[in-house]
Amino acid sequence: MKKDKINLLIVDDEEQFLESISKSLELRDFHVIAVNRGDKAVEVAKRQPIDVAIVDLKMPGISGEETLRQLKKEHRFLEVVILTGHGAVQSAVDCTKIGAFSYLQKPCELATLIEALLAAYKQKVMNHRQIEEKKMEKLLQISTSSSPRDILRRLRELDEGED
Ligand SMILES: [Mg+2]
Fold first, then answer.
1. What is the CATH number of domain 6-126?
2. Does residue 55 sit in helix, strand or coil?
3. How many whole angstroms from 59 Cα to the centroid of ligand 1?
4. Of 30, 48, 80, 146, which is most buried with the most CB atoms under 10 A?
5. What pTM was computed for the model?
6. pLDDT in tens, 123-150
7. Cα 11 to ligand 1 centroid, rounded to whole Å
8. DSSP letter (8 states) at residue 34
């Protein structure tokens, strides 16, 4: 994890593509973790904080759609950009319903991809901030309430569902 960089997870089964896109994005100051299977992506995201993920759709093992589903279920602030060589309108609609931030087709200009990644990161930061602000409001309400046990219980409730 790098604090001063966007932590980017890339999952794609095409090794050469994975390597070249990773290098390009590392050069543009992203901290990249590249994996070639959806289940590996889900595992990586459990172990370290990821801001944004680029997910391929057609891969051996669990599909990109299932990878997206699991990533969004376990990390509500993580944003996903789908990058596929087999784009279709129905698939784009389905992925958006599951929570994909955007849906791009290969070949994709690096500038377009970076634009999508930065927009996804911005969304992640804004969502996180909104939750923090709501928590702060609730904290201010709690501070005037009754017993220490009650305060503790309500603080614990606030901490549930983080990340
Ligand atoms: Mg593929």
1. 3.40.50.2300
2. strand
3. 5
4. 80
5. 0.86
6. 999 999 999 999 888 888 877 666 888 8
7. 9
8. E
